[in-house]
Amino acid sequence: MEILVCVKQVPDTAEIKIDPETNTLIRAGVPSIVNPFDKNALEAAVQLKEAHGGTVTVVTMGPEQAKEALKECVSVGADRAVLVSDRAFGGSDTYATSYILSQAIKKLGNFDLILCGKQAIDGDTAQVGPAIAEHLGLAQMTYAAKIQVNGKKISINRETDEGYEVIEASLPVVCTVVKSINEPRFATIKSKMAANKAKIEKLTTAELSDLDPTKIGLKGSPTRVKKTFVPVKRESGVKIKEETDRDTALKLIEKLVEAKLV
Amino acid sequence: MSDYKNIWVFIETAKGEAKNVGLELLNEGKRLAQVKQEKVVAVIIGNNNEAAAQVAIAYGADQVISIEGEEYLDFNADGYTNVMVQLVEKYLPSTILVGATNNGRDVASRTATRLRTGLTADCTGLDINEDGLVAWTRPAFGGNLMATILCPATKPQIGTIRPGVFKKAEPDASRTVEIIKEEIKTPVEMIRTKIVDTIKAVGDLGVKLEEAEVIVSGGRGLEKPENFALLQELADVLGGTVGASRVAVDAGWVPVQKQVGQTGKTVGPKIYIAVGISGAVQHLVGMSSSDTIIAINMDPDAPIFDIADYGLVGDLFEIIPVLIEEFKKLKAS
Ligand SMILES: Cc1cc2nc3c(=O)[nH]c(=O)nc-3n(C[C@H](O)[C@H](O)[C@H](O)COP(=O)(O)OP(=O)(O)OC[C@H]3O[C@@H](n4cnc5c(N)ncnc54)[C@H](O)[C@@H]3O)c2cc1C
Ligand SMILES: Cc1cc2nc3c(=O)[nH]c(=O)nc-3n(C[C@H](O)[C@H](O)[C@H](O)COP(=O)(O)OP(=O)(O)OC[C@H]3O[C@@H](n4cnc5c(N)ncnc54)[C@H](O)[C@@H]3O)c2cc1C
Known about the structure:
heterodimer; A: Rossmann fold; 2 domains; two-stranded antiparallel sheet; 6 helices; globular; B: alpha/beta; Rossmann fold; seven-stranded parallel sheet; five-stranded parallel sheet; 27% strand; binds flavin-adenine dinucleotide; ETF_a/b_N (chain A)
């Protein structure tokens, strides 16, 4: 099975702080990590490879430093790693990002399965997976909590409001995965050292010569971030702390009745 | 581009019934449509849309476009995208609002890509700017940052909107408006995914988070799964449902369908009770548009208190039983 996994390098949003003076994100010192859902996608790919044979290719679009993310992927089972990078790609929204990635995927070969995370924790849109599927003309299977492959058939458990839908399709497809699908493995010291020496391939506009220049970068992006700001927090209300917890509870009831909320 | 007009709302249905988020968007869509002096149009794709169409009209649709077919009985991205794209090409709407559910995001992503237009994700605020464009406001970076996004050069402008952020209108069952029935078929071979089975989540999910008026959510402070029975009891007395923080979901105490937050659901109930939840920004982004927030936490400095209308400092295991008892009394009286 030839599997390709799209991974994004993201700032660890759990570490992000707001500068109270300027009201902007403090990005300096925030570690870059592999998007958590993409680790799940990679783990799913490596497990499928272990069961069915084949190779796992990881691809990321981003700046030079995103090579670090790729090396981490190699250390946990990816066979081939590709950085898609060019200044012309800067400012891409999900339309342009998915277009560039889909062109890179076409260039890299024929894949039976293309895996993405459910969403990236910085952009948070969950749009790139389905949009890659559309650009490639493939079926999409999203929010997979389980993947099973049998010959050319794939079956997934898709997360829904009630539980799961079991969905079937024929390969090739694009599939996005949720966190509960697996526990990603950890690298060993040995696999880390090997990954450090791994060759990272690079694709730029030179290699991707078929790219339509009107569909890439800021110019090729139909959306524009007009402004960003720190969310206005709700005002806090009253704090209740009486002598005993029982009194605290009773006080709340009193206040809710007063405010006609119950 | 001036040919493009009217605001469409995709009415997602489940077994023929309209989901709340579509009805919420009809109300917000109407507000935007009034600014632009346009119509708000409900678009329904399904197998039998009669009931959903009537509900959409009662909740404010000025027109309904309905597409029925056996191939649309269950949601599938291939069939629904085919319908949306053909409808857009025929009717040229200026804007499409779609609920940011799993199905909504799937069909919106594919439709926007096929039409080569912009899609803003998971919005929590909408407006019309001075150029008549929709200004889509959304949280990013896990709720740490808000961004306002425009789609200036292509039409339609499409966005997904988080459930629970906007309120439904008061329904008016006496309204009658035009229902346009379009025939759009999708050949079976074009629908490449097939639902072969459904599996219920383990445990009783009760009322869906997005539909509930009262949510009692528990976090790490609950300590073990059995203690969620306590929250369930409180939720039952209040006619609500149970939610959870990611910690409680990851620990396997509560099904993933119950997670509130950045990577879970957004909710906007009348009352949200956060029990033993610290109030991480990733949790807050999913519930801060609730009408009234009550927090119960023994740490007086827990960040959840910064946004709570009523912050109870104390031990949840002492407080919750008293609340259950008192609410029961109130209900009986
Ligand atoms: C504040 C802010 C708000 C934004 N809002 C929007 C918006 O509403 N609409 C819009 O179109 N764009 C938006 N963008 C731009 C968007 O974030 C970027 O295009 C981003 O590169 C991809 O989107 P995402 O991070 O949401 O990824 P998602 O769509 O959430 O990612 C899903 C999966 O796609 C794969 N993937 C995503 N990016 C890459 C990559 N670079 N390389 C390899 N695989 C990848 C991964 O497998 C990932 O798990 C916004 C940007 C910012 C800064
Ligand atoms: C990418 C990403 C996405 C995430 N998405 C989500 C998401 O969607 N939803 C989400 O919720 N989180 C999400 N998180 C996790 C989030 O950052 C927090 O870790 C999580 O919300 C904390 O859960 P908690 O409040 O239950 O636990 P804790 O932070 O550990 O808080 C437990 C609280 O319980 C209180 N407590 C303990 N015992 C008692 C008692 N007996 N009585 C009263 N109070 C008590 C403690 O004082 C404490 O404040 C995400 C994180 C990341 C990095």
